[in-house]
Amino acid sequence: MTIDTTASSVSGINIKSSQNRLLIKNGRVVNDDGMEDADVYIEDGVIKQVGRNLIIPGGTRTIDATGKLVMPGGIDPHTHFELEMMGAKSVDDFYKGTRAAVAGGTTTVIDFVLPNKGQSLIEAYNNWRQKADGKVCCDYALHVGVTWWSPSVRNEMEMLTNDQYGVNSFKMFMAYKDAWMLNDYELQCALEACTELQALAQVHAENGNIIARNCEKLLAAGVTGPEGHPRSRDEEVEAEAVNRACVIANQANSPLYIVHIMSKSAIQALQNARTRQRPPLYGETLAATVGTDGSHYRNACFRHAAAHVLSPPLRADPSTPQAIVEALADDSLQVIGSDNCTFHEKDKELGKGNFTKIPNGVNGVEDRMAILWQKAVNTGVMDPCRFVAVTSANAAKIFNLWPQKGRVEAGSDADVVVWDPRLQRTISAATHHQAVDFNIFEGQEVVGSPQYVIVNGRVCLDDGQLRVAEGFGKFLKTPVNCPYVYGLPEPGTPPLDEPPSPDVPSPAHVSNGGSHSPDLKLLNKHLEGVSVTSSGCSTPTGRKMREPGQRDLQNSTFSISKEVEGLDTKTSVRVRNPPGGKSSGLW
Ligand code: URQ
Ligand code: ZN
Ligand code: ZN
Questions:
Q1: Over the stretch 259-308, which tens digit does the pLDDT of each residue have?
Q2: Which of 115, 230, 365, 515 could potentially form a cystine with 338 if both were Cys, beta carbons 3.0 to 4.6 Å apart?
């Protein structure tokens, strides 16, 4: 392990021993199901106590979090560090990428092993572990791409779900024809395999055949610049694939997680599917689509326009970012990731004269939390609890890391962010910690950022100073059969391969229409400082929070004022409410 010498000169061993006990005092602890004024005591990388008047051993380092929010470290479930694609390699490696993640308040990332067509999945997995293990500054897990199909792929999927490898999610591509794309038959086989293995299927939902044909036509018509990219893959092309993926998932009786949803049409397709089918459907969106839009593809500067090329693309409809934020707030979407996949200008130039050759991907791993805070919490669309849900807790639940990750509670890993809601900064490639030479959020002012970031008990952002340690993070095994996805089987549960009955909607994915309507006056009070003495979201008295999952994310009538007045009647209801709704295992 090596320590970032730009920020610290002490050895890794000393840092660990001097920081094995930590007290975060006077802050407001925010979880997805409640807020409370409480101190957090950390020892040996684990949260030991959360409460007031704690009895703490002498010599413990204390961080004063007065006026700050103490939240679970972010989980970014979608990164591509050191990914070779389209003739280039993404420049944020596992060191710089996770260092940037920590700087922005993210303490766990989940990267994608993407095998080449014909390559062994196990071999690709081993390559990824080799790239990552010695470099990561925070914990990480891996999804594996199913980029081709054969009986051997099915076997390797099964092996990967064993404890030796610890993979519980697989990504299938409906785009990137002639590279990673599966046809519908192969996709259905892969989804059936996920159901059998009780792993979580993910899809990149765009119609790759339509895109290929549109690219041919655009190039033939002389459209060669980056503006051709969004023109080749409009909203309909995304929404059609979302719908088709949901239909295939229903046929395969498979829960489904749709990565990087980028348009209002795609959200609508997902919502429509939720009303008619039983296995749960999860939607992830990206910081990119919350923080910027498709107008950049019209920029005359190739470098600028190409730097925004990702798939699905940013949308021209200027109301998209706001709609995406609202979808995250009302649980139409459950997770925000970054899809951090960054390429230097020289690599983006591979597509000069032919937009189809521009390596796809943008930054976001560092700015994801601040961008969402700015666009969603500062605007009053989302309360801090929902912010925690979509930036960490839901991902922890969906990928079976809960409550080890995504929660500030005794027994959880000490991955904690002390968030200063007043900290003001301007995002810029000149000051960011990523390797890439461009930032798609350049010049945006955000209010709200981490002041301290604690990774497994180690203070890695210390009052704004980044002090990460290369190799300090560890690989997280994610077990299959996640209770938040597959539910707990009940007596008499039909076998999972029994075809679903289309006319029995499951509570797992009834369209929610739930509102998160924070009382803005009280929310502002939270942000002014810790001036409301009882808890904000859900724990009006006492420090014991609800059991994980007890907050109803789907049908919430959450109101800060009601909760403060002690009118919350849900605290005694013990139901399992995973992200996206209840899962009974009966679908
Ligand atoms: O499709 C993805 O998720 C990666 C491989 C590339 N980045 C992107 O453009 N979304
Ligand atoms: Zn993708
Ligand atoms: Zn991606």
A1: 999 999 999 999 999 999 999 999 999 999 999 999 999 999 999 999 99
A2: 365
Pairwise CA distance, residues 79 & 179, whole Å: 19
CA 513 to chain centre: 22
Q: How large is the angle between the packed helices 151-160 and 121-132, nearest 10 degrees?
A: 40
pTM: 0.86
Phi first, then psi, for residue 323 (nearest 5°) are -65, -35
Closest residue to atom 7 of ligand 1, CA basis: 361
For residues 566 and 558, is the Cβ–Cβ distance under 8 A? no
Residue appearing with tokens 């944020």: 92
Q: Residue 355 carries which DSSP code?
A: G
In the three-class reduction of DSSP (H, G, I as helix; E, B as strand; rest coil), residue 562 is classed as helix
Which listed ligand is nearest to 313 at the C-alpha? 1
Question: What distance in Å separates the CA atoms of residue 310 and residue 313, rounded to the nearest whole number?
Answer: 5
CB atoms under 10 Å from CB of 417, counted, come to 31
Q: What's the token pair of residue 338?
A: 């970054």
For residue 579, what pLDDT is reported?
72
What's the gap in Å between 356 CA and the centre of ligand 1?
13
| pLDDT per position as a tens digit, 88-134 | 999 999 999 999 999 999 999 999 999 999 999 999 999 999 999 99
In whole angstroms, what is the distance from residue 199 CA to residue 182 CA? 18
Q: With contact defined as beta carbons under 8 Å apart, do 138 and 106 qualify?
A: yes
* Identity at 56, one-letter amino acid code: I
Ligand 1 site residues (CB inside 6 A) read 80, 85, 204, 260, 310-311, 339, 341, 360-361
Tokens of 111: 């990267």
Ligand 2 centroid to residue 204 C-alpha, Å: 5
Q: Cα separation of 258 and 265, whole Å? A: 14
Cis peptide before 57 (omega within 30 of 0): no
Q: Which residues pair with 35 in a beta bridge?
A: 30
Sign, CA dihedral 519-520-522-526, equals: positive
What's the CA angle centered on 20, arms 18 and 22, to 5 degrees?
95
Average pLDDT on 567-587 reads 40
Q: Which two tokens stand for residue 240?
A: 């059609």
With beta carbons less than 8 A apart as the criterion, state whether 142 and 110 touch: yes
* Token pair 């092996």 in the structure block, residue: 159
Q: Is 80 exceeded by the pLDDT of residue 560?
A: no
Tally DSSP H helices, then E strands, for the chain: 19, 21
Q: Is 501 helix (H, G, I), strand (E, B) or coil?
A: coil
SS3 124: helix
